[in-house]
Amino acid sequence: xxDCADAMERRRDAACPAGGDAxxxxxxxxxxxxxxxxxxPLILSTTGVMIMQYLDALFLAWYSKDALAAVVPAGMAGYxxxxxxxxxxxxxxxxxxxxxxxxRPDRVGAALWQGVYFSIASGLLVxxxxxxxxxxxxxxxxxxxxxxxxxxxxxxxxxxAPLIMLNAAVSGFWSGRGATLPLMAVQLxxxxxxxxxxxxxxxxxxxxxxxxxxxxxxxxxxxxxxxAALLLAGALLPxxxxxxxxxxxxxxxxxxxxxxxxxxMPNGVRFAVEMVAWTLFLFLVGRIGNAELAATNIAxxxxxxxxxxxxxxxxxxxxxxxxCQGRGDPVLAxxxxxxxxxxxxxxxxxxxxxxxxxxxRLISMFHDPESMTAEEFARVSGxxxxxxxxxxxxxxxDGFNVVFTGALIGAGDTRWTLAAAAIMNVPxxxxxxxxxxxGMGLYALWAAxxxxxxxxxxxxxxxxxxxxxxxxxxxxxxxxEDAGADAAG
Length: 489
Hints:
This protein is mainly alpha-helical. It has helices at about 1-15, 25-30, 30-65, 65-90, 90-100, 110-125, 135-140, 145-160, 160-175, 180-205, 215-235, 240-245, 255-290, 290-325, 330-355, 360-365, 375-410, 415-435, 440-465, 485-489.
């Protein structure tokens, strides 16, 4: 597989001979079509993640109603715990792209290895939380059948954290260089493995025991480990060792590790703050009732149709902005971001129309007569259709959230974005709790969530417009002997 990825990268280099990197920022930012060429493989990868999660939810819906109700809260709780460290491990991509923009590809390998060491250490820390799964979900207060499955999924997710974080760190080596085609190939292959393993383990195919939601968790961890192994092996190909120092840069560099933590951890903590608020949203919905939680989970999965492709576009914008910041060209970074904004909004408008026009058709795929009666599903479907109207409403501005945060993170504006996220998400969580305490129902919580998403979008827009990010840079100043190369970048 690494030979295949290397061949794909060589074909890309023939059309884009820049030492194995993405095209020069000036050519990438020239038009929406050029941005889309860079973003396309990333969009396909994140869309693949959405399809995989959709299939997992579909399999679990066919397995049992309680499994469907449990998977999103448990998955979000698991990601909430890991996201602090995933955000830092994955921030290797920003260091890689800024080093290349500064004309210092020899520093890429060192950035990669700091991410690897950080991901292993932090992954083991998260794994130590697995025994707390039962007590944690006992506090949540969902029905016993749902609670037991939430704890099982969360426990396995924590135990697999080292592999999940390693995959984030190593992916940064590929995405930061703009090598999105081989990255896409590996990620889509791992997603295919994930779906296949989920089907086998959830339902107990080929003589294996039926593992239910635990099977879905094991499949996810195994696929992440598979992806990490392939991407790390690819990073150690001879051509990458020579150009980027992916072997000679393997020693621990305390100063560089500190810079990764300094800029990456606020990015991860911001993820965690946002995940706490949205996990609380799901937990509070679950306290209203299992049908309300199932309807919300279905709407959440369908929302991925709009949201996940934008994550790929946001990653591409982050790559371009980071490259421009490395070479000292914020004007070009802004131009690419605004064009990415136009693309994101066009996609969101299309998704919003679909969510309003055919909600029942989208929701109907989650019905399995063996796990949910027609009457039960009719109630879930009716509530889910209303939830999708709220999704359509916040789609009007959600592209702002994804693209502008991608640009700010690519520039290194992680501490301000963390502070802003904390200031916004804490009141949001308090409002949700107050609504539930006042006896308000499902739609009141969804209305609050919709208003919050739109308010966030305006905040990120104003921060980007302020231009404070234009003077930021995450990499260290080049030593005198490298000054010429830095200026050339």
